[in-house]
Amino acid sequence: MAHVRHVERLSPSFVRLTLGGLDQLAPRGHDHWCRLFFAREGQDAFQLPTRTGEVGWYLQYLATPRARRPWVRAYTCRNVRPDTGEVDIDSVIHEDVAGRLGPAAQFALAASPGDRLGFLDQGIGFTPDHPHDWTLLVGDETALPAVAGVIASLPEDARGIAIIEVPTAGDRQEFRVPPEMEVRWIHRDESAGGDQPGQLALEAVKATVPLGGEVHAHLIGESGLATGARRHLVQEWGVPKRNVDFVGYWRHGRPATT
Predict the structure, then answer these.
(1) pTM, full prediction
(2) Is the CB of residue 105 less than 8 Å from the CB of residue 93?
(3) Residues near 9 by beta carbon (within 8 Å), at least 6 away in sequence
(4) Structural domain of residue 177, as residue ranges?
(5) 88 and 173: one domain?
(6) So what's the pLDDT on residue 97?
(7) Closest CA to 20 of 45, 2, 38, 46
(8) What is the CATH number of the domain that holds 23?
(9) Low-confidence ranges of the chain (pLDDT < 50)
(10) How far apart are CA 90 and CA 79, in angstroms?
(11) CA distances (Å), 172 to each of 6, 11, 152, 163, 169, in order?
């Protein structure tokens, strides 16, 4: 179990939750991610899985009656401070196509110090397994914490391009960037045809001239962005499939149900 220590509205689209009680959590850098478990409405207490294996916890979770089953969502650890047992989680606040907020966004907006939630460490997803000369990172606002974490963890001589689409210019964040790593920000509210999250970032990928040498690409965020960017890199750039990692964090218009 973890608990909320501090809540901060970072920008129009982000709320930062500082969680405490995580003294044993070791920082892994890059896109260190976790699963958070939130109580459903009307639950005074909730039942967490006791298994931690990738398959075991989920089977146990599904076997829990819905009345006692918490909401679960995946997040990137924005900052990990083992000296204080704290972790910062940046939650995106956006509505679905019907104008509703999901349970995680509702929790973030209503959170106050002392609120409890479950925390499951999941390691890192950015693990290139091949030699490469430069790095391409692409994501929308849900991927910003992961992209920022990966960039900040790259070596000083890293070369590459990061394309980050966010709802507004006010959602941009500062983080360490190696001198040869270019970060391209796209503000959806300032661009024509930016209603579909991830579409502008995908168009930016298609307009990008690749750098010389072998690339490792990490494409994350809205499902159409991740799959569309991968298709372009493989078919148009001729990038081997093993050089491209892609994860659809979410689907526009299709809210998660668990």
Answers:
(1) 0.93
(2) yes
(3) 15, 16
(4) 134-250
(5) no
(6) 56
(7) 2
(8) 2.40.30.10
(9) none
(10) 9
(11) 21, 8, 15, 12, 6
